[in-house]
Batch of 3 targets.
Target 1
Amino acid sequence: MEKLTTAVIEQLGGRDENTDQTMRDIMNHGADGGFSGFIYYSDTVEFYNQNKDLIIERLEELAEDLGSGSVMLLVKSFRCAQDLTDEEIGRTLYGSEPDQMAANCLAWFAAEEVAMAEANT
């Protein structure tokens, strides 16, 4: 999780005096609330592509912690994934050409996971 935390904070513009508040805001309102580095598809898809392995690792840990073990079912439960097909999610997780909306959703997931972890430290 440490590497994912570093990646998210860098995507947000780096750690500064506002980082703690930004993390609380993401945790309370969701990453879709318009946070620098997580607004435009060009940014979120690039972030996902650069951190795909770390994001999938966190998804696998969370799916196991929740008792399902199914990353696909976990992702399908995300509000941002409600309009995505299994094929779009699967291609994004395990293929070489991610779906733009699915990659965006998973970038937001990473930001929210880091925000929750940071706020609880």
Target 2
Amino acid sequence: MKFKHIIWDYDGTLFDSYPIMAQAFSDTLKEFGFSEPADKIMAYMRVSMSRAIRHFTEKYKLGDDFLNCFEGLNKIAQAENVTPFDGAVGLCHDIVKSGGKNYLFTHRGESAIYFLEKYNLASSFTELITSKQNFPRKPSPDAILYLIDKYNIARDEAVMIGDRELDILSGKNAGIHTCYFTNGGEPLDTADFNINHFAELYERY
């Protein structure tokens, strides 16, 4: 199957941001007198950021002061340290050169656009869907259905790529193909296919 329309998740898929976010969360907890290892926090974040925040704020009875502090530390940490996964930039450029189209579907806000521009990726994307558009969160297919309708996308030519089951379910609920990015972890049976490195996608577009 050759895909012409590639819909990307951001955190944990295009950008290696989870370790940085988890460490910032752990550091913020320490400032409030609590200790949690970053890898444990990251496990919750990989389900969803809201899941991680809800779990630890309820566990330690934390409020807006904690969330505001985390937001500040996380913003600084990401600005200094977040980078695209190896091969992501070149792949997105090559997809466009070969006549394909890239789209972004993320729950993240405008910071996603900032980092795409920083690493010369934004120009390789036909449309960037962030939290600003206020689509229902994954696994809702609404944002993908919007792209299908707007760009007259044939479902058998489209694929949703993500690192979480929510991403995969969102693609399946929209009736398109799904690709799970394992990043060295366990494959996901519900995805149509799994990849560990973006070089594996070259044969599919």
Target 3
Amino acid sequence: MAAPKPYANPYLAGTGLGLVLLAAFVVAGRGLGASGAFIRASEHLRGSGGPWFDWIVVEIIGVVAGGCLSARLAGRWRIAIERGADRTASGRLTAAVSGGVLMGLGAVLARGCTSGLGLTGGAMLSVGSWLFIAAAFTAGYATMPFVRRAWR
């Protein structure tokens, strides 16, 4: 297997994400977000019609497909459990699932997800969104020393 390609330039990737957000506003008349897709899909399953025609459901399918395509093109496609040397695979999976559940509950309580709040709300210059972005980065930097120890 060939060596994987280096990660994308973050400035170029950020610019691309901004252009995708702009295109979402122009084409669909709404911004980006993730947590609403699960609610929309479950609503459609209980009612008439299917979830495939809802913008946010199609968006999430595109995110998954795009991520898979990107991993393939970069030579990073593989099935693996990334973990620190002193962590077990089951411990890593437990931590990942627990973190995902907590993020999902937080998105329900906040009535939106980090992508919707950070990207769409930030682009719309929402004060609450900018405060959230600052708090998220502050929390990330504050917890980094503890998380880093788990990956050694």
